[in-house]
Structure formats: C-alpha cells, structure tokens
Design brief:
The chain is mostly helical. Helix content is about 25%, strand content about 0%. About 15% of the residues are buried.
Length: about 70
C-alpha cells in the first residue's frame, strides 16, 4: 500500500482511499493539481509509480504552457 497523505479540501478520493484522478491526464478534482503514483488508483509498484509521475509531469507542463489536450 502507498503512503497516506492528508490533502483535504476540494480533492476527491475513491472509495478505497486513493486520490481520484483522470487516468489519461492525472488531473484531480482541483484545477491545476495533478497526481500520479502510489497515491492514485492502479498498480502500486515503484516502476508504475515513477512511470505515471513522468507522464503526469509532461501533461502538467503542457497544460502550463498552453497546449490544448482535447
């Protein structure tokens, strides 16, 4: 199991306690907050967590510089 983090506020969580994210983009329920890794649903291995964070970081950067992902 991954680490438990108290983020509170407007972030949505799944019934199992994972942070709810869009699986394709890593977007959370809060604007400009992205997540990937063992706090999110899906595989909980180090390899999967690192790969997810790399993808989400690229998407977050693209959104930040104005790339339309739709």
């Amino acid at each position: 199991a991954g680490e438990r983090v108290e983020l509170g506020g407007e972030l949505a969580f799944t019934p199992d306690g994972s942070l709810a994210v869009d699986e394709g983009t890593g977007c959370t329920s809060r604007p400009w907050v992205f997540a990937g890794g063992d706090l999110t649903p899906g595989p909980k291995t180090v390899l999967h967590a690192v790969a997810a964070v790399v993808v989400v970081a690229g998407i977050a950067l693209a959104v930040r510089v104005g790339v339309d992902l739709v």
